[in-house]
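Q: Hi! First time doing this. I have a protein sequence and I read that you can turn it into a structure. Is that right? Here it is:
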Amino acid sequence: MAGLSMGGMQTSAVTMANLDKFSYIGFFSGGAAAGGPGRGRGGAPGTPAPPPATPAPLDLKTIYNGQMAVPAEFNKKVKVLFMSCGSMENAAALRAHQQQLAGAGIAGSYVYISPGTAHEWQTWRRSLYAFAPLLFR
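A: Yes, that's right. Below is the predicted 3D structure, encoded as structure tokens:
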């Protein structure tokens, strides 16, 4: 399941509550931890987002409804956790989020940053293009 913008938030809510049904998950400009990366918008195309704050350390017991509390169990269920945004969105925070997930032992997480785009269709078309091949590995 994948979704863009608010659909990314819905994808997060649905998939994380049903990991027995979803093992390939895509968040395109949304859904990457409530209050975290992917929520900031660059506004109109061509308008850069404000500089991101340093993200707080992840609490795996609470992030994504606690589904990552035991990384080994999460890794057995989820094959791909794909997160993307435009470079004019909150790209640095999204990269930091993915690095924290990897550092905590969450495997199969991928980040794609669409160059020169904001919260817009071109970002999501490129995100789908990067996400789709991961479904067939």
